[in-house]
TrEMBL record:
InterPro entries: DNA-bd_dom_put_sf, MerR-type_HTH_dom, MerR_fam. Residues 10-78 form the HTH merR-type domain. Keywords: DNA-binding. The keyword Iron does not apply. GO terms for molecular function: DNA binding; DNA-binding transcription factor activity. Pfam families: MerR_1. This is MerR family transcriptional regulator. The keyword DNA-binding applies.
């Protein structure tokens, strides 16, 4: 007799369904605090359907995608349980929605952390193109180079550096998504 999809599963049923040894499931419970089977008298474990779906996602990331346990823990911390559940069930639409929500949150956080002063505001194209003086290769009077002895950057150079920083942060974000 088959169980309904909403029925709780024993550790042996989950292990058989996911082709994992039971000791691996017990070990994962110690590494992923999101896996919380209900325990009855005698310590017998009963996994809820959402626990099984989460374990599927964890198994997929560890065994099929080559992630480490720390990598999967970071994915769970950054994206939540639903992300790995969607991965485990192969729901690409849900993965895309979660990724878009995460990207929107990151962009909102970056926008909130940007300075608001007119001096610091960068919008659109850079105000000046990088010249030889910007990279310390020479001084050009025709480019309007103003050298001050106090060690401070000019407004234009600060704008160029800030733009380069934003480009580097975007590259880092893209690399983090690939990992």
């Amino acid at each position: 007799m088959d169980k309904s999809p909403d029925a709780f599963r024993t550790i042996s049923e989950v292990a058989e369904q996911l082709d994992l040894p039971q000791h691996v499931l017990r070990f994962w419970e110690t590494r992923f605090n999101q896996i919380k089977p209900m325990k009855r008298g005698g310590g017998r474990r009963y996994y809820r359907p959402q626990d099984v779906e989460l374990i599927k996602g964890i198994r997929h990331m560890l065994y099929d995608q080559g992630y480490t346990i720390k990598g999967v823990q970071k994915l769970l911390r950054d994206n939540g349980n639903q992300f790995l559940v969607a991965i485990g069930s192969g729901d690409l639409a849900a993965i895309e929605v979660i990724a878009q929500r995460k990207q929107a949150a990151v962009e909102a956080e970056e926008a909130a952390s940007r300075p608001r002063g007119d001096d610091e505001m960068l919008v659109g194209q850079p105000r000046v193109k990088p010249g030889r003086r910007f990279f310390g290769l020479g001084k050009s009077e025709e480019e309007g180079a103003v050298q001050s002895g106090d060690g401070r950057l000019s407004r234009d150079n600060r704008a160029l550096l800030q733009e380069a920083l934003f480009d580097l942060l975007e590259c880092k974000r893209l690399l983090d998504q690939v990992r």
